[in-house]
Amino acid sequence: MRQLDSGCDEALAVADAVNRELRAGERAFIHLGRTGRRCLTVDPATGGGQLMVRQGRFDGYVRLTRDGSEVYLNAPAPGSATVGRLLDVGRLLLPLGTFRTPLADQVPHAGEWRNRDGRVSLESVATDPVPLLSRLAEAAGPDCAVRTLAVSEVLGEQVFADSTGPRGQSVCRGAEVQAAASADGGATVARVSHYAADLKRIDLVTLGRELALTAAALGPASASLPGSEIGFLPSAAAQLLRVLVSALLFNPIAEPRPLCTAVVDDGRTADGCSARAFDCEGTPTGAMELVTRQGEQQAVATRLNSVVGTGGRKARSLTGHASWEARRYQPQPTATNVRLAPGGAAPDLWSGERCLVTDVRSLGVEEFRSGGQLALRLLAARAVDGVPTGAYAPLVVEGEAVDFLAALTGVGETASYHPGPFSVGGAPLSMDLSRLSERNEV
């Protein structure tokens, strides 16, 4: 089978070419990253498979500095033969640039880092996909038909090089299982995916149950939500956490509230889709509580921007949260791999009669109008011992990010990470809607 090969040497060759083109008094910092995917698509009906490999291409930026001025140069798919022209453009722009003193002295990551050793093997699945398909179908149940299945190896790579000497490499390999299904022969298709560092770390039983419940929630509503206690499937919990963290990066928590959990941001967690040793500025990543159990938000900072914490507290040093934003021509603060720490009453989603949320969507207009106030639409299914028995009418719940965190009554262990602008871990959640300021049914 075709393999997904590392290209860090190719990216570092571009950095060497930049250094050769520099003139006296000039300094350059270059960061390049890419994501590749090797995907095996399996036909559930026949067991046949088709392999597709996309190596991806490196892109990033060059920061050129001279005589107290600096300029960021967008570098999509740079090559050793074209960096000279890129630097010539930068020299024309340097008089318009200004030198910006970093928040603190930067101590860059050095050397090579990997989240795991070796490749993710798809060969066993390609040779005999029946065991995987059987486990997934059994967990989904007889009323849920699996339509498509894709098993992927994902490769994320980053390199940075400073013309003064420091350079680093970061390699992240992981596995993703994506499945689509419909319930009771319906035409509406539900899609669910799980990601981890290796296929063996993906729980196919949980994935199959989520798939069946997600498909059921897309059917016609048979009842309104009874009471205020609800559960969240891991995939829906990841959607919720992504919305909350995105809001917190723009509207930090002003008034802390006691929580049963903490929001953890860990750049080097092995199972994270965005696991990496350093950010786009070369600053080492690590684990921190973005929001503590006391409901206080911690600050994050890049060379040019920062997000203050609760009480307006600023970060004392760079925190490893910079992400290159090509449209703005400068790095922006972001999250890396976020998850909720276990806490509260351990949620059991698979016993008894439960209302289980399968999908969370932000109604963004409300958020922009109210400056931090979120309106989220929830889709939910009725389940008895984890088996779907119908769909509830959609809900709209409202509050600030800290209100939603304070409404959580239980958080389980992280079941899977999910890709996006930043990686998000999903875990079984339980929530008391009566703790939110408003709840509307639609």
TrEMBL record:
Membrane spanning stretches: none
Which Gene Ontology terms cover its molecular function? metallopeptidase activity
Q: Where is the signal peptide?
A: none
The GO biological-process annotations, alphabetized, read as:
proteolysis
Tell me which residues make up the Metalloprotease TldD/E C-terminal domain: 263-417
Q: Which Pfam families match?
A: PmbA_TldD_3rd (PF19289)
Q: Which domain of life does the UniProt lineage start with?
A: Bacteria
InterPro entries hit by this protein: Metalloprtase-TldD/E_C, TldD/PmbA_sf
Instruction: List the protein's name.
Output: Metalloprotease TldD/E C-terminal domain-containing protein
What organism, scientifically named, is this protein from?
Peterkaempfera bronchialis
